[in-house]
Design brief:
By secondary structure, this protein is an all-alpha fold. The protein has 16 helices and no strands. It has one domain. α1 runs antiparallel to α14. The protein is globular. The two termini are 23 Å apart.
């Protein structure tokens, strides 16, 4: 019995050291030159990815540019479907609550034109600079959302509500300004790619990312961004309710799928993150997704299981020195008698 106690006592510190070493690996910090090189390479890689997405968008625009008859037919069918399932009329909301305030309309048009890319771009730069360990999963979620949206643009070309004045819709950009068509934006944009709304999809991704990455109680205010964006795209007659709903579903699927791949170790959050960097970010992301935390969790669980197994063997393992002891272990009630 003493042998069992001794082996458990000796094995426990070794296993504890193994588990702790998985949490804080002894890796020397990277040199300044190495950090600069890694960040430069990563910046070039991400810029190339953005250019690739823009190229894909341009290709899809060329493929669907002349499919106006299908896009208009899909728009009429979608309006009828939304009416059947009881969604509120976008045109009715326009006339009831929106068009009576020209200054609000112009502000919404400006937000639609200038708020989409800058907000997302600034957010991604912040993540890349301050939360580099999680930049990969957010970037890949945006890529997944955008690529799935491009596929949907091909499969289901859709004219936005502003092309249906007979249904009561008002093109607020044309009638109130500022008008992106006067600035040449219409030539670069895909006019029949209403579904899904990337404005809504990207804003939802920014909001859920901020909630996951930040600790402050104010982080939930980021949900205002997708709410305001959804109201803007609908009330300016650029998108239907369905476009926003599909965007939320797509971005949720992209986020879950990307995080799942990261947890399985199929890609790291960021290839240039130093492995010895402390895990100090939000537990909602770190403990569930960071590959280092996954490894640490596995090591801790393994250590706990081994320690418990040793303790169990210490208290329950039978002494095989004699048949009487073995019989007493198997039948404790008889031994007490």
């Amino acid at each position: 019995m003493a042998v069992s106690v001794s082996s458990a006592t000796q094995s426990t510190p070794a296993r504890s050291r193994t588990a702790s070493s998985m949490i804080a690996p002894s890796v020397p910090p990277p040199t300044t030159k190495r950090v600069i090189v890694d960040r430069t390479i990563d910046l070039v890689r991400n810029a190339s990815l953005i250019l690739g997405l823009y190229f894909a968008y341009a290709v899809v625009r060329r493929l669907t540019a002349d499919d106006w008859s299908t896009a208009l037919a899909n728009g009429r069918s979608l309006l009828a479907f939304q009416d059947r399932i009881g969604l509120p009329s976008e045109a009715g909301l326009q006339h009831a609550y929106f068009l009576q305030n020209p200054s609000v309309v112009r502000a919404a048009n400006s937000f639609y034109m200038w708020g989409h890319f800058p907000i997302t771009g600034v957010f991604m730069i912040w993540v890349w600079w301050r939360r580099r360990a999680y930049y990969g999963v957010i970037r890949n979620s945006i890529v997944g959302l955008t690529l799935s949206a491009l596929v949907l643009h091909i499969v289901f070309p859709l004219a936005p509500p502003r092309f249906f004045p007979s249904a009561g819709f008002v093109d607020t950009a044309r009638d109130f300004g500022p008008n992106p068509y006067d600035l040449g934006a219409a030539k670069a944009a895909n006019q029949i790619a209403a579904m899904p709304s990337l404005h809504v999809g990207w804003s939802v991704l920014v909001a859920i990312s901020l909630i996951a990455l930040c600790r402050s109680r104010w982080r939930f205010l980021s949900l205002v961004h997708p709410v305001v964006t959804t109201c803007v795209v609908v009330l300016t007659a650029n998108h239907y309710w369905s476009d926003a709903i599909i965007a939320v579903l797509l971005v949720s699927g992209a986020w879950v799928f990307t995080v799942r791949l990261a947890r399985l170790g199929l890609f790291s959050f960021h290839p240039t993150v130093h492995p010895a960097a402390p895990i100090t970010d939000s537990p909602s992301v770190v403990w569930l997704t960071d590959p280092r935390a996954v490894s640490a969790r596995a090591g801790i669980v393994e250590g706990i299981i081994d320690v418990r197994a040793d303790r169990a063997s210490e208290h329950l393992a039978p002494n095989t020195d004699s048949d009487e002891d073995r019989f007493a272990y198997q039948s404790p009630s008889k031994s007490g008698a």
